[in-house]
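Below is a concrete protein record.
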Amino acid sequence: MDRKRFIAFLLISVAVMIGWEYMMNMLYPDRQTRVKAPTTASAPATAASTPAAGAVSVPEKTAPDSVSLVRGQRISVKTDVFAVEIDSNGADLRRFAPQ
């Protein structure tokens, strides 16, 4: 009897998970990730720069021109063992010093 209940529970759980994913895709279609090809102007391709047949080209990741972290309020915590400074934006540990 317990085996039948377990199998029924397992099948119903899988059906609920598949149904939930289907419903979320129907309600929020923009949630799916879309891969866009990079739009960069480049020189005409030559025979040396073209990939071989069947090769997959991977676009290079480029860093943005200027990256700046948003600084939150700094919280200092001092104990008898260590002293730390925590940034409130993301709870990042900014300074750690043993005492």
Observations:
- The two ends are 62 Å apart (CA to CA).
